[in-house]
Amino acid sequence: MDNVGIVVDDLEAVIAFFVELGMELEGRALIEGRWAARLVGLDDQRVDVAMMRCPDGHGRIELAKYHMPKAISGVPVDAAANTLGIRRIMFAVDDIDDVIARLRTHGAELVGEVVQYKDVYRLCYIHGPEGIVVALAEELG
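Now predict its structure.
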């Protein structure tokens, strides 16, 4: 897999959230023109794209802010875990409590609770900006 795409409204806030999570901003670009519109099946488009890279270099998230045409609202920001579609992205972390505290400074809130799965993981789901749900997994032992 190369990357996962997420359409956002507040690009700067979402970049800051993922940087706090430990991702690195790989690059930004303004994408427009007929070639790009044909690729995604739109009549025309103008979109700011930011590529976020995992620190180990093995995964990326492409954040896109559409200026033209305007983004369309889809799934409610408080959609439950059993809503159809991509519901979350999971990240392995060293200290789940520290990561939660840092993400809270960006408006993140726990969806449920931090739970322990056997003696293997501590896990949680977090609502980030714009309803983006991330899961955190701290391996134990």
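The longest strand covers residues 24-32.
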